[in-house]
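Chain A, query sequence.
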Amino acid sequence: MTGFALEAEQEEWCRQLRALSARRLRPLAEKGEPGRVNRPLLAALGEEGLLERVFTSGALELCLLRESLAYGCTEAETALALQGLGAYPVLRAGSEAQRERWLPGVRAGQAVAAFALSEPGAGSDAAALALAATRDGTGWRLSGEKCWISNAPEADFYTVFARTGEGPGAKGVTAFLVPADRRGLSGEPLDMLSPHPIGSLAFDGVPVGRQDLLGEPGRGFKVAMDTLNLFRPSVGAFAVGMARAALDATLAHTAGRAAFGGVLSDLQAVAHRVADMATRTEAARLLVYAAAGAYDSGSAGIPRRAAMAKLLATETAQYVVDHAVQLHGAVALQRGHLLEHLYREVRAPRIYEGASEVQRTIIAKELYRGVSAR
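Chain A, predicted structure.
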């Protein structure tokens, strides 16, 4: 497990990823339409072998990948992460036939995956989902809605979590792989603050069978949590990448902007604020790496560590980007400015894959579980 410093090879790989983001991925992202799946960008991620890395990397390498892409092109980072989130349950819990059918296309950036967990009445409390899977002979029919689903309604397949009723709460949830062309499935895009493709899905008696199961009936919540425990630290890495980009932009701006007979960085109030931004970013980065290292080594307390990493990193990124905007002034509010872009991007990670309040609940439960066990 990496302790407090990356190896030289890891640092060089991150540098190469940042350069690739600026050289190839950013121009493709700028040609895309906000709120739509950018298939040329996905194809480029596949051609560069980065989507393959999502499925072969450990948690730490995934964090380095997401952090580096986020620094140079948040759209590329998000496109890559959504492929992983939607398809990782297929890798871990899918049948051989499902993996052979879908994963090569995902890795190549040709098939678009989506993770369909949230519902209009079940966001933070994922165990309260209501999408019904009603028995129909040897299979089921799905009826209900999903909402705030990334890549919907343009994905080629969905990892869908529905209530089959083997038990109460999380014990009655089952995971299914549902192709987008399945009869009875429809969707529409949602106009969101961030420029990502996000939509809602409607299930009108969508037929699914045992061949569509991801894992066993009634074990779907474990499939969801296994996926989220891997990806939560890397959401923190995404946030760290944005924070580092905002910090570097602020350093350059304050060191060169003339003000009050000198430059902005000469002002103690400015210099101290930048110091706080840098310190918080570094603390978040190290906590993310520690959580990822713990996951890779199979250490105890992975849910707590993952929750801490996501909580601190996403809240820190919000702080850093907000202060970066303040130190830049009005120029940072102009459409097209890096910080205007980051200001819109940085808000969502504090909500998705478990809001900050949910992360605090997970952390507290894990801490008090240890107290009660003594």
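The first strand starts at residue 113 and ends at 116. The radius of gyration is 21 Å.
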